[in-house]
Specification:
UDP-n-acetylglucosamine1-carboxyvinyl-transferase, Chain, 2 domains, binds uridine-diphosphate-N-acetylglucosamine, cell shape, transferase, cell division, 27 strands, binds phosphoenolpyruvate, peptidoglycan synthesis, 34% helix, alpha/beta, 432 residues
Length: 432
């Protein structure tokens, strides 16, 4: 079994460069399916397992995909197939993002229903509501969602009950080729939505208002391949900012875009962290003592849920009582039990977690429960007494490129190893 082994106690210093954003590249690659003419060339694509998964989904739909040197080229000009099978959707829920493009291009889409998720129930009713408003008939059965539209999608007015990132993206993609105008209200305002809209407009779409609560899309007849560079990953940036802060380090996070990180910067500064803008990123200096704060996750520009577990790690080192309230996902506290294994003074009260610090953190063997939890446990290991072993690294690899290598370059005592566990030895003996 692969593990990351961290020996706590090192202050981080130096420079780290962030990759292209996972949550921008996945919808962008799904959008390349809309181009019936010409190739799309996408730059700054991170080598994440999620990117390999979406590339496989596109290939299965009959697109030609090449991925070299952080550049993906997609040729979706041939007739597309319609099915995204469960083996991909199970690995990565964002596979459902091909649905809007498929419906728009072919009038049909068949996507496996996403199964359970470690961070709570994640329905896609808002995506489907949008497709139905545009004239699609949607059927759910035998583990699949089948959507079909006769005579092409029609522009519509759609109000989202919650500013869902995925629903905004999926409906926006579908609307680009619909007949007439679509008005999407109460949409997500994340920077990744703006990045997607920028790509769509380069492809020939007419999307206005991305980044605000209302997006207007005038349908066009055809879209073309385009060239696009993915925005820097604000969550990876935030994770390294937390690494600097928790270790009382001094790190320049290159590529961090301050306007994408307003709520995180505000909370870190409130905790006593020194953050300054430099020409090509943010310098983060951790104080000797951190102050506890209260945090509530919200849709952008509120505090991002994808930074919740990393900030929880930081709060464990802060003096006083802190509270994190999770409002975006219904069950994103699985990592709390793992923090407890590291002697964290922490308790769950409904949708909130209360920390009382600073905790006397101790190294332990812990399992990542989702990708941000993986990062948060490693961050905690950086300041725990003794050795921390983090398992279930498949989660980490979905969202971070060479995380241990980047931390080691900043001075962390960290390695990634393959260790055979006692139960694996038994299995090897049985199979011998
Ligand atoms: C690939 C990607 O970009 N993933 C991000 C995206 O996920 P994702 O797009 O799945 O997140 P959403 O914004 O859609 O989900 C937010 C909340 O809305 C609920 N919901 C969503 C859709 C729907 O049809 N019905 C419904 O009830 C979800 O269950 C969840 O509780 O935004 C999340 C919220 O910022 C981030 O944590 C994820 O990292
Ligand atoms: C929850 C996340 O991603 P996904 O929506 O792909 O599961 C995340 O990036 O933290």
């Amino acid at each position: 079994m692969e593990k990351i082994i961290v020996r706590g106690g090192k202050r981080l210093s130096g420079t780290v460069k962030v990759e292209g954003a996972k949550n921008a590249v996945l919808p962008v690659l799904a959008a390349t399916l809309l181009a019936s003419d010409g190739k799309s060339i996408i730059h700054d694509v991170p080598t994440l397992s999620d990117v390999y998964t979406i590339n496989e989904v596109l290939r299965n739909l009959n697109a030609e995909v090449a991925f070299h040197n952080n550049q993906v080229t997609v040729d979706a000009s041939k007739e597309l197939l319609e099915e995204a099978p469960f083996e991909y959707v199970r690995k990565m829920r964002a596979s459902v993002l091909v649905m809007g493009s498929l419906l728009a291009r072919t009038g049909r889409a068949r996507v496996a229903l996403p199964g359970g998720c470690a961070i709570g129930s994640r329905p896609i009713d808002q995506h489907l509501k949008g497709f139905e408003a545009m004239g699609a008939k949607v059927k759910v059965g035998n583990g699949f969602i089948d959507a079909e539209v006769e005579g092409g999608l029609k522009g519509a007015r759609v109000y989202l009950d919650f500013p869902s990132v995925g629903a905004t993206e999926n409906i926006m993609m579908a609307a680009t080729l619909a007949e007439g105008t679509t008005i999407l209200e109460n949409v997500a305002k994340e920077p990744e939505i703006v990045d997607l809209a920028n790509l769509l407009n380069k492809m020939g779409a007419k999307v206005k208002g991305a980044g605000t609560a209302t997006i207007k899309i005038e349908g066009v007849k055809k879209l073309y391949g385009a060239e696009h560079t993915i925005i820097p990953d604000r969550i990876e940036a935030g994770t390294f900012m937390t690494a600097a802060a928790i270790t009382r380090g001094n790190v320049l996070v290159r590529g961090a875009v301050p306007e994408h990180l307003t709520s995180l910067i505000a909370k870190m500064v409130e905790m006593g962290v020194e953050i300054t803008e430099e020409e090509d990123g943010l310098r983060v200096i951790g104080p000797e003592k951190l102050k506890a704060v209260d945090i509530k996750t919200m849709p952008h520009p509120g505090f991002p849920t994808d930074m919740q577990s990393q900030m929880m790690a930081l709060l464990l080192r802060a003096e006083g009582t802190g509270m994190i309230t999770e409002t975006v996902f219904e069950n994103r506290f699985m990592h709390v039990e793992e923090f407890r294994r590291m002697n964290a003074n922490i308790k769950i009260e409904g949708r909130s977690v209360i920390t009382n610090g600073p905790s006397d953190l101790q190294g332990a063997e812990v399992a990542a429960t989702d990708l941000r939890a993986a990062a948060a446990l490693i961050l905690t290991g950086l300041v725990a007494d003794g050795i921390t072993r983090v398992t279930e690294l498949k989660h980490l690899d979905r969202g971070y490129v060479n995380f241990h290598g980047k931390l080691a370059a900043l001075g962390a005592d960290i390695e990634r190893v393959t260790e055979v566990t006692p139960t694996e030895t038994i299995a090897l003996d049985i199979n011998a």
